[in-house]
């Protein structure tokens, strides 16, 4: 512990979670801890799973007291004052953890319960945003406990389509389906990951992603990244995390289109009342206009992730951005 007076606020970097994206989350946490300003804050890794919530202290894992968001070390209780959430998937990306923290009056870096619950549900989020004139792909949502007809589905959304869990990320259990005989297997694969499945029209064009950080309710867009898949048919888990894609920052598109997409990302952040850091993915179709793919409110922060690349391309430092985000809520109390 730090002996300075006053003591530095204890910051929990909350990672892990209950989904297949657990390992990516832990890698994101390592990047965040590396870039937190330790002259201002004392960061601790909080690792959560369905079995245990733990805090790493001096190389050991201590239990987290969930009633106080605190841990006890050498007989002394230390309360964590802020949560920097970097869980990809449940419970950190869907509003559950945010609700818990709200009840304990612990500030955090993401949007609130409604923002997180809405953006975690891809189908509902995209249709909400479409009401404001934002173009989305044709899609349907399937439920594991409700019947569906593959032949009728393929008539309503002509192949090729993407089939993926309606919640989750990192393209886990996502399949590109080009023939009807592949559709049922793809749906069942996605149901293996989540109880709701999204069947979405394949949109072709240039894929770009737009990062943005929000402080004092003001969005600050970052340079865009263009995604070019080198191996495989789409930007899947291996392409994202194992180098099977080329990521070009800034994207090779016109300045006019870049500004249009950055403004659209800012608009989306306002419509969702997003906080912290978000990333919005688009396909620029042959008509030159963007179609929204999805919104990510706890985007990957590994060294290979888009946001660190875009921050670097903007000539900014992750440490400064993290400090601004933490202070935004920590000093508002």
Structural class: alpha+beta
Question: Which H/E pattern describes the elements?
Answer: EHEEEEEEHHHEHEEHEEEHEHEEHH
Beginning-to-end CA distance, first to last residue: 23 Å
Strand order of the largest sheet: 4-3-2-1-7
- Strand percentage lies at 25-35%
Query: Helix content range of the residues, please?
Result: 25-40%
Overall morphology: globular
Q: How many separate helices? A: 10
Radius of gyration (Å): 20 Å
Q: What's the β-strand tally? A: 16
Textual characterization of the structure:
By secondary structure, the chain is an alpha+beta fold. The chain is built from 10 helices and 16 strands. The chain has helices spanning 22-35, 96-104, 113-120, 122-130, 150-156, 183-191, 237-241, 255-272, 306-313, 318-330, and strands at residues 10-16, 42-48, 53-57, 60-63, 70-73, 76-79, 82-85, 139-143, 161-165, 175-177, 196-201, 206-215, 218-229, 245-248, 276-284, 290-296. The strands form 4 sheets. Strands 4-3-2-1-7 form a 5-stranded mixed sheet. A hairpin with a 2-residue loop joins β3 (53-57) and β4. The two termini are 23 Å apart.
